[in-house]
Batch of 4 targets.
Target 1
Amino acid sequence: MILCFLVLLKLRMKSSLVCQFGLSRSGLYAVAEWYVAGIAKKCKQFPGGCVDDICFDADRSKYRLVTLEALRLEVLRQGLERCREFDAVHWIQLRDPYNWFSSLYRGITSGSVRWYGPVTLDKWKDYARLCLESDQWINYNRWFGDCEYRRELSAKFGFVQNCDGEPWQHIPARGGGSTFDRKKFENQAQQMDVLQRYIHFVDDPSWRNQFDSDVIFLAEKLFGMERPW
């Protein structure tokens, strides 16, 4: 009886600490909202969190969702290791490089996104290589566009609502909405053309030259997506 109670307690503790890792403009806050709605629990969220935020709440029955953005590779590894130590629910979230870099590029040039360091795909490659080694990652492209994929994830996460794979239509306020559409499609997020953003920059040589053979390989392996030009 005592052993069974301890096992159940551990499972509850495991599910109350949730961490997502990803890059800005990868749909992190939309997926976070979808997750919180799906578990139907009060959840304290830590947007723009750091590795030290990866810990249980003082009341371990309270849910805690930490979003960690654009970490350096060594810090990202530390965060993932800390999640394993706490037995936290966690994932890396990745968007394909062509549309991700388009959204980032648009945000930086318009002044709506702050990005520190060179504007390259180096961080994307770091995250992508970790995804190749793990099954603990969310393919943002599929989450946005694939009903069955959302259904699989909802089952994996133990959702009590939003279990039928219906799309998430709300546009989170954090980050100012889409770098292309802002909040134009509020509560109609599926109307945003998030999987075709690259067409805005495909004729820009300075943008196109960022996609080296490593990026092209990783995009094909993780997203089944060939270079779109």
Note: The chain has a mean pLDDT of 85.
Target 2
Amino acid sequence: MKTVLYKSSFWISLGVGVVFLSAVVQDAVASSDAAAVARGAALYADNCAACHGTNLEGQANWEEPEADGTLRAPPHDVSGHTWHHPDRLLFGYIKDGGKKALKEMGVDDVKSGMPAFGDVLADRDIQDILAFIKSNWPEQSIDYQKRMTAQDDVK
């Protein structure tokens, strides 16, 4: 009976330890996500807000090109189309700029005003900016964008 009691105590202690460790890991992940969003907010303010707006609202009349055909900066809130695109495309658009990103997609008849930030921002910075942008979307948009990313990852 003593052996069974010790074994039971061991498994209960192990189970409690696993639950505790799992909670600590989840808190750490949540904290790192919050930290990424905070870093992304600061980076967005410094590098993106001048064109895309301090509240992610984009330029006025963003759906209409400039007189020379250049696209205006779209909003990154739910009123725009950022959440329609997979992570790979969003990351590449920021890192390589609109011209290269569009060319890689086979789009020749659109003139993007988006500059490349690959020489200014580290990959982690770009990921943090995207985390900040996504943190402002409603759950439905987040879920849709995750599906787009998952479908893109399969290709």
Note: The beta strands are 70-71, 111-112.
Target 3
Amino acid sequence: MANGIEMITWEDPAITARNDYTGVWQSEVYTFDEPMSHIVPSWQLLGSDGLDGPQISVSIQATDSNGRYSHLRSFGSYAFDSEGEDMAMSSRRATANERPGPVGNVDQDTFVTNGDPIRAVRFNIWTHSPPGSPEFLVRSLSMVASNQYKIRQSAQEVYPSRPLSRSEVALPVPAISQHNLDDVYPSLDGGGRTWCSPTSVAMNMAYWGVGPSPSELAQLPTVNGPAEAGAELYEPVAHAAYHIFDNRRHNKPTGNWSFNTAYAAHYGLDARVVAYPDLRSVEERLQDGKPTVLTIDWDNESIDLGRHLSGAHLVRSAGHLVVATGVTREGDIRVNDPAAAGDDDVPTIYDRSQLERAWRRRGGWAYAIDQRPGGL
């Protein structure tokens, strides 16, 4: 039975050099088994360090159910710029600013249909490697497509998926509150108070024991504030925020999903944006020792009790990220919620039914950030 989600990965796409500095690649046309409405790419790069390092741009061309073709729609450009005082302000890491098209448009990290469902897509990659930059390889390009209308409609159902087992899972994911960095880096969207995504990524990376080196962390601007009290935990969050920061996005510039997973992939992890039909898929990952970043939506002041998330650290959110870290014997979900006021309160247990609805209202999207088979 179709679940409204399809995922594909192109491993080691063969980039064709156009000259000494630029290369291109185009995928085959991929035809979906069922109509789709939302499409998110993610990519994994090798050799992408340095202020003048390599840059990647990803574009999509879509065909809708009426046979109309879109022009190439760009997801913008990404570069892992890691030097200089304004490391976050690189114009080489920014979403595109394009006029709306008749078939669909890119909203930061997501291609969204204008109404008619998408039947087929093709992706393009463009790379630029300045002279003297490290060897540059695109390890993979992934795509997750979903029929969000089907998934979000199912979130209205009053149900939890049945737990896979009654076994308890509690992965030792370090707990970090995003509020440790409130106002510490105000130029980056106000600092930690908006950094649920880079904080969740940093927690997931810390679980795998990877992250920026001391020399990389030393490039962060000097700050005075709570970050100094726990630098070993908090500086990697700031580093992630700097290298995820979307310089053409005024709303949630550290929330670009593709940039978040690209950052984790830079450190050797197998990181991509995914979507799942229910929490049983997340449970399978947890049983395999893999934390999973979920995006959720709730409102505890709504008259619709189906929108409530009991015990949440915020009254409401239209888009917040947490790290699923385990499952109780009753089937409820353990998470590290970065919205907690302090680190001790980050580990939280959410009712399975409430969390499942909150997650599926956001479309069942997730970050899968895993150790590669055989190590990094």
Note: The chain has two domains: 5-152, 169-370.
Target 4
Amino acid sequence: MIKQEQREQDRDAKDVLLGDHDGLPVLADRERARGVLLRALGRLKAGRDVSERRKAIARALAQVEDSDRHWMEGLASRLASEGGIEAVPSHLAALAVAWDLVESELAAMIRSVNSQRKDPFVGQAVAGMSAAAPEFSERLAKGNIDSDQVFLRVALAHVFRRDPSSTFSMFVIDGMAKNLHKVLRMSLNDFVKSCLERFDEEPAPLDAWGYVIVLRGLTGKAGYFIREPGPDEMEELHRLRGKLEGLMGPLSDAAFFNHIAAGAFSGHLMKGNPGGFAALMSGLMAAMNDRFVVLYAREEEGPDGGVHTDILSIPASNAEEARRIGIALPPLRMHDSFRSLKEFMAQQADLEAREKS
């Protein structure tokens, strides 16, 4: 049954490509949109005055068809081409409307990027951004940039369906990331957190047995509830150990666990198959006798490259507690040490204990 589900999920995942999507719910409340646009453009000081902004907004909205599900990107383009508003504020104003009217759907679209790390669009967008924005390129090269900064630029390029090879388009996306706080009145990190972790507001499934937080080198974090493994999952883990040791010789438990974690990450999660990832991780976590873990995965280049993993226990007594600790984890930086994460989680666990006492 598990293998059949994985085949179906792998098949479905092939249809999910970044850089294109089905759009958002249609623009239903034009009066509200008008007010949001006027406020956003005012905050960005776009256009000569209020009168010019009103005219630009009226012309742009008049060209949005009632059935258009890609109205956000169209609105941005029309504000710029028909309204004479510069491209960066036009795009930010359109994003502000989507965040105000269809926040949940926009957040889900941004969140979908987080599970498509292997999509070629990610590398293309980062390369395009590096070419278009020297400051971004320099910070990336020096490792002086956190995961949210990189992730949001890729996500914005996706939701606006912009060509990653276009220097101008990537310049606009970089400008959006730099100025987003002026429009939404929240930091870039807070915006990313709101999008990525919104699913964590939902109650834990009744059959939640474990919880794994996945930290990825430059693409943020995500959390997954894990069901208790059954005989099939444990049998698969045993089979994989035999196969690995047949190729590599005897492995320590720690080495074996990291091999399996890397396989779950690259072979399932990064191919858009979270179900297969969760099934493999459930057996692994049972073998480790640890139901709550952080999986830190890094993809490295070169002859010795591949996926390198570290697994760290979360000091929690149940899945909900593990999730709360995961939400509190700070944005990852390229030079962060795993030890600092361990210290941070210990502090969070201590706070949880104090709140309960």
Note: The CA atoms of residues 241 and 256 lie 7 Å apart.
